[in-house]
Design a protein that fits this description.
This protein is of the alpha/beta class and 284 residues long. It has a single domain, classed as Rossmann fold (3-Layer(aba) Sandwich). It has eight helices and nine strands. A nine-stranded mixed beta sheet has the order 8-6-7-5-4-1-2-3-9, with helices on both faces.
Length: 284
């Protein structure tokens, strides 16, 4: 039976970097995959002003989503201005209620920069409040509460370590061999980021950097390439292996004491209006 899978990260291209191979496979299998970013990446440029780069990057993210026939939304936050506070939780809760996901994938709770960590906390808590009928989002025409909390999974942190440099080992690694071409094609849609990352982070090759990262994650489980995930264990979130079952034979467990010293440098940046806006290739 087809599931609805909502994927939320902070900035355009985070999803492509961290989990596009897995979500492309889920979309190919007939599931309803919805991609969203909190911001439009308005700080991701030294050559364009915030409004201009945000417009460009929303278009790039929508183009990437279109490659797997997914819808893309951005939620109206600005870079470095994502906080887990009441109005933000209301906004994310309203969005989750509108999408009504069975499974949610979001950023790692520990990561190299605050937007990623705030996104993780906001999505985690909005999954909870979305199922509370008495939680009010303040929308004029609010979506109905959802019948149960969706199953929640975290992507890897960019770089694979927390703020203390401690490696974050995923619960499972998904073999993305069958969709790696799509993952590359999706990342290549983020054309504005190639120059930015070279100037800001010294990354000469945006795509090869992702390829190295993906090899490092795959190596944790003896795979050529892979993407890692952790299931959120908190009560009362669902603990059935919902994503694991959808992934099926592509799922592999990391080796005991798996370790990898990734040299991947996260290079994000990261827009806005006050309301979630659907961005499709038709309208952006
Ligand atoms: Zn990011």
């Amino acid at each position: 039976m087809s599931k609805t899978i909502l994927v939320v990260h902070a900035h355009p291209d985070d999803i492509e970097f961290l989990c596009a191979g897995t979500v492309a496979a889920l979309a190919r299998a007939g599931h309803n995959v919805v991609l969203a970013t909190m911001s439009a990446g308005d700080c991701g440029s030294a050559a364009h002003d915030a409004h201009e780069i945000a417009r460009m990057r929303v278009g790039e993210a929508a183009n990437a989503a279109a490659l797997i026939n997914s819808r893309y939304f951005y939620l109206g936050f600005k870079d470095m201005s994502i906080f887990s506070d009441h109005p933000s939780r209301q906004r994310v809760t309203e969005f989750i209620r509108a999408i009504r996901p069975d499974i949610v994938l979001t950023s790692s709770p520990e990561d190299y920069m605050p937007d990623h960590e705030a996104t993780s906390a906001l999505v985690r808590d909005a999954c909870f409040s979305a199922a509370l009928p008495n939680y009010v989002t303040g929308e004029a025409n609010p979506a109905a509460s959802i019948p149960e909390i969706p199953a929640l999974y975290f992507m890897d942190p960019l770089g694979g370590v927390d703020r203390n440099g401690v490696e974050v080992i995923p619960d499972f690694v998904v073999d993305i061999e069958s969709t790696f071409d799509l993952k590359i094609a999706m990342l290549m849609e983020h054309k504005s980021q190639r120059d930015w990352l070279r100037i800001r982070h010294g990354l000469e090759n945006y795509i090869s950097n992702m390829q190295k990262w993906t090899r490092d994650r795959g190596a944790l489980a003896g795979l050529r390439i892979g993407e890692g995930f952790r299931r959120y264990k908190g009560h009362p979130y669902p603990q059935d292996p919902r994503l694991e079952e959808l992934v099926g034979k592509a799922l592999h467990r990391p080796f005991p004491n798996a370790t990898v010293a990734s040299e991947v440098v996260a290079g994000d940046s990261v827009s806005s209006d006050t309301k979630a806006e659907e961005a499709t290739t038709e309208n952006t």
